[in-house]
Amino acid sequence: MTSPAFLIAVTALLNFMMLLVLMSLRRSGLPGVREWLWANVLELAALGCYLASPLGFAFIPIVLGNALLGAAICMFYAGCRRFAQLSVPVRPLLISLVVYTIILGALRFYVDYFNLRVVVTSIYHGTLDVMIGYTILRHHPKTRSTHGHDFTGGFALVLALAYLARCVLYLLHPELKYWFTDYSALNLTFLALGAVVIPGLTMGAVVMAHDAILTASEEVASRDFLTNALSRKAFIEQATRQMATAARSGRPVSLLLLDIDHFKSINDRFGHAVGDEVLRDFTLIMHSALRAADCLGRLGGEEFGLLLYGASPAEARSISERLRALVEANTMRIGDNLASYTMSGGLAHWSVEESLQELTLRADTALYQAKDAGRNRIVVSQPTAPTTPPEHER
Prior knowledge:
This protein is α+β, with helices and mostly antiparallel strands. It is 64% helix and 9% strand.
C-alpha cells in the first residue's frame, strides 16, 4: 500500500517542478510570481519537517511543519492578491498564522487532541482556499482568456469543500488515527489531497500568468509604439468587427478621420522630437475624452482614425466638435514657450451597405474639404444618394 513517505516524496517532486517553472516566469515581472515561488519553497520545507514524524520529534512536524505549510498557503494567497493588483493584508495574515501555530502547539503539548488539531488545520486551510478562490474569480480580467482563472479559482473552492468534509469527519469520528501510523484509505486520501494543494494551485497560477503574458504581447503588437493608439492593422480589424456587430444589432456607427494641422511645419521648425511629443499629447487628449466603445488608431504620420460605435449622427458630430475644441484649447510646453496646435476632421456616418473602405473614402474626402476650407474644423460627409436612371432608360 502507498505510504505517507511516498506521497510526501511525490509532492516534493511536484513542488520542485513548479519551482522551476515559476523561476522561468520571474523575468516577466508579473506581480504575484515571487509570492507563488516562495509558497512552493515553504511547502518543500514543510514536507521535510513531516518526514521527521517517525523519528519521535513531535515539535518538528506538528508545530514547525504545519506553521510552514500555513505560511505557504498564506503566501500563495498574497500572490493572488498581488496578481489581481490588490493590496495584501500582511498583518492579518501574520496574526492568523501565529494564532494558528499556537493553537496547534497547545493541542499537542498541553492537551494531546489529534482530531481537534485536524479540525483546526482544516478550518484554517479551507478558509484560505475560499479567499483564494474568491479573489481569483471575483477579479478575473474582462478583456482576455479566463481559463486559468476559472481552473485555479474553481480548484481552490473544491479544496475548501474537501477540507470541510475532513473537518466534519474528524469531528464525528474521534476514532480516526494519526495519518503516519494509520495507512487507511481515508487517511491516505486526505494526505494526498493536502499534498496537491500548492502544486495544483501553482499549476493554475502558471496558466494565469501565461494568459497575462500572451495578452500583453498581443497588446504590444497591436499598439503604435509612440502614441499607444491602435496600429493601422489593429484599427482596421477592430473597426471591421464593430461594424459587423452594428450590422446585427442595428447600432449606428460613424468614422472620424483626424489630421493635426500643419504638422510638417512643426517638425521643420522644432524638430522630430517635438513632433513626437505633439503626437503623444494629441492621443492623450483623445483617450481622455473618448468613450469605452470608441476605437482610436494611428493610420500613418499625423493622421488618426476614430470609430464611434453606437453614436447617432448628432452625437458623433457633437463628440467630434468637442474633441476639436479640446485640442484647440490645449497648450503644451516647447522649450521655454507654451505652444498650441489644431486639428481637422472628416466625419462620415455609416450605412449598412457600405464597406469600411467605402466609409473611409467618404471620411477622407470630408477631411480634405476641412483642410481646403481653412483647417481647424470638422466637415461631415453627406451620404451618397442612390442614382436615378434617366427617363429614357426606365
